[in-house]
Amino acid sequence: MSKFKVSLLFLTVFFAVLLSFSFTSNAQVAITIDLNHKSYMKYEAIYAEVSLRNYSGHALAFGENPNLHGKLYFEIFTQGGELVQMASKEYPSLKGIVIAPGVSRKVTIPVSKYYKSFPVGKYRIIAYVEHAQFTNAYQSNTVTFTVSDGITVWKSSAGVPDTLEKKDTRNIKARNYKIISLYDGSHKIFYLVIDDDTNVHAVKRIGYEMGSAIPACEIDYLSRLHIMLQLSPKIFVYMLYDINGKLDDKAVYKKIGEEPILVRNPDTGEVLVAGGEKARKDFDYKEDAEIPFKE
Known about the structure:
The protein is mainly β.
């Protein structure tokens, strides 16, 4: 290789490094985004964790003063490249946040709050941050996610109790309890979905599918849903949800001779757990490993 070619190669590499250094040095803020999941049930809440690292050399504050005005926002695109429209002009608030020089600050944003809905499909999301001290907005990495319908494995209906609706008992409204299975790319996940003809009232992740076992479900006289879900060969979790999707009770059982089961009294409508016994945390089971979804 000639000296001229060597010199040309050296200069090319030198200016490339210099340009890269200049770009990095000019960056005031580094912004990254991550989602709480990669796959979602339709109507499930989507949360983003946004990390902001301050490279400006001075404290970065967000507030009411015009010199402190800033904005965090997202762009979400469908698989076909269409921009998903926001539900309103409201943006996540960063007011009151102060980031010292060289420090990172993480904020969790309920992304789905700012959009009407996400139809079934694949999406990509990017976060941006603006500030009065910056000339330009700063852009995050791109993260992809999917929204699916899943497969309904159990379904039943229940009337909304009078104590909630406070209306004529001759016109009792009904809601649907559904257990839906969704494959997220590595596991099958069970969801509880509560809906009616016009609204979706709750979407809850309740656990992973083990083999072909489907959660046992019973509805009591108060229209509450009792669920018994197998977590491992010997460990089961019991959950009690009201008609709005509020978790009223949760307990972990272990198999002792017989598996724990749900028993409904046909005369009173009460539902009880029979068989097995209460499991001991960190002795019979590890919560983080066997009970992945917390309320």
